[in-house]
């Protein structure tokens, strides 16, 4: 009988990336929780906030890799709070388009500097060169999965 291969979970790259992403998200969540929004709601605001024009909920799902039901609930809550508006799509209104309201844009503009500051504080453990290399490597991994660059 051959020896079984064992998986060292703490060395397994998918686990490490997931665990790190969860910690980073929780660290940032403290900032947007002050505005009464959660992680999926922030993802909607952040995705829409990068664009002047409206985007579909499906676009938000593709960009954030968040399940469509979570995005749908987040959008509904943001609409109820007056932070996001739904507009009919172009081709007969079949696809609903989403945009930030002026109130939503104000929340986005207030949150961005806070989150960038928090990101900078976490990343301070890396040199500028290490941070640049990490960004390059993450970009390569994202490319390997064909992930959208939704801010462009």
In short:
With 152 residues, this protein is mostly helical.
Characteristic key phrases:
Arc Repressor Mutant, subunit A; 3-stranded antiparallel β-sheet; 3 strands; mainly alpha; globular; 152 residues; WH-like_DNA-bd_sf; WH_DNA-bd_sf; Transcriptional regulator MarR
What can you see in these coordinates?
It is globular and about 55 Å long. The mean pLDDT is 91. It has helices spanning 13-33, 39-49, 57-64, 68-80, 102-123, 128-144, and strands at 55-56, 84-87, 97-100. The protein has 152 residues and is mainly α. The chain is built from 6 helices and 3 strands. It has a 3-stranded antiparallel sheet. The protein has a single domain, classed as Winged helix-like DNA-binding domain superfamily/Winged helix DNA-binding domain (Arc Repressor Mutant, subunit A).
User: Regions with pLDDT < 50 over 5+ consecutive residues?
Assistant: none
Structural class: mainly alpha
**β-strand amount:** 5-15%
Assign a percent range to the helix content: 55-70%
Quantity of strands, as a count: 3
Q: Report the CATH architecture.
A: Orthogonal Bundle
Query: What is the subunit organization of this protein?
Result: single chain
Helical stretch tally: 6
CATH superfamily: Winged helix-like DNA-binding domain superfamily/Winged helix DNA-binding domain
Radius of gyration: 18 Å
CATH class, named Mainly Alpha
* Widest sheet: strand ordering: 1-3-2
Largest beta-sheet details? 3 strands, antiparallel
Helix/strand order = HHEHHEEHH
Q: What best-fitting shape do the alpha-carbon axes yield?
A: globular
Total domain count: 1
Terminal CA distance: 54 Å
Mean pLDDT across the residues is 91
The CATH topology corresponds to: Arc Repressor Mutant, subunit A
């Amino acid at each position: 009988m051959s020896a079984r291969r064992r998986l060292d979970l703490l060395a397994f790259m998918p686990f490490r990336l997931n665990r790190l992403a969860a910690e980073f998200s929780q660290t940032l969540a403290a900032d947007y929780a002050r505005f009464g929004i959660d992680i999926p709601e922030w993802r909607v605001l952040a995705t829409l906030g990068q664009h002047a024009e409206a985007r579909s909920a499906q676009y938000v799902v593709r960009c954030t890799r968040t399940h469509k039901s979570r995005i749908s609930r987040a959008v509904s809550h943001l609409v109820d709070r007056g932070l996001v508006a739904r507009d009919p799509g172009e081709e007969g209104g079949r696809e609903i388009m989403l945009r930030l309201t002026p109130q939503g844009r104000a929340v986005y503009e207030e949150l961005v500097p806070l989150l960038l500051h928090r990101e900078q504080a976490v990343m301070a453990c890396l040199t500028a060169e290490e941070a640049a290399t990490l960004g390059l490597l993450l970009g390569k991994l994202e490319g390997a999965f064909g992930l959208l660059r939704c801010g462009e």
